[in-house]
Write a structure and sequence with these properties.
- By secondary structure, this protein is an alpha+beta fold.
- The protein is 39% helix and 26% strand.
- It has helices spanning 2-19, 27-32, 75-91, 132-139, 161-183; strands spanning 36-42, 45-51, 57-62, 97-103, 106-112, 121-125, 150-153, 156-160.
- It starts with a helix and ends with a helix.
Length: 186
């Protein structure tokens, strides 16, 4: 899996180097170009992280539910699969908004290309009967604000993923700075 990800990254970089003189990027595309999604652990729990181009490591999802374990999808397996899906959708330019929907009569979190759009690709399935919008808000640790990445349209949540990463990276940097002040690290 690591060799495949490395090969995909090298191929993407080579293609970007060859094509980039001919492509005009929007500011939001430029910000996350090169972001890498990985599965690791945070406080002993499988977690999907994103490493941003400026080397911030931001936790995106913590996988502590064992609901799908009997189906062969324990938290670590789900972490690996979904981290790969985040990477795929990011690399293909489809990771613009996260939203919710139904697939095979199951609540899901998916990607969409615009605020108010339908599901264009599955990120992960939720427990039957779960409130997908509420779960997405809780999983992404997004709180209702007057400004920020969270939008609700007709009872469906839309998270601008670029804005989410920017806010999460800023919060991570601030937390790291505050922690270094507490421990005397400079």
């Amino acid at each position: 899996m690591i060799k495949f990800n490395l090969l995909a990254t090298v191929a993407t970089l080579a293609a970007t180097t060859i094509i980039s003189p001919f492509v005009v990027e929007s500011p939001t595309q430029a910000k996350t170009l090169g972001a890498n999604f990985v599965c690791g652990t945070w406080e002993g729990v499988p977690t999907t992280f994103v490493m941003t181009p400026n080397q911030d490591t931001v936790p995106v999802l913590v996988w502590d539910s064992k609901h799908f374990s009997n189906s062969g999808y324990d938290p670590y397996t789900r972490c690996q699969l979904v981290s790969s899906r985040f990477q795929y959708f990011h690399d293909s330019g489809q990771l613009n908004y996260l939203t919710t929907g139904l697939m095979n009569r199951m609540p899901v979190v998916c990607v969409t290309d615009r605020n108010g759009g339908g599901c264009n690709g599955l990120l992960f399935t939720l427990k039957p009967g779960a409130s997908a919008s509420q779960t997405l808000q809780e999983l992404m640790a997004v709180r209702m604000r007057t400004k920020g990445p969270l939008n609700e349209t007709l009872g469906r949540v839309y998270i601008n993923f670029e804005d989410y990463l920017t806010e999460a990276a800023t919060a991570t940097q601030k937390r790291n700075l505050d922690n270094s002040k507490l421990t005397g690290d400079r």
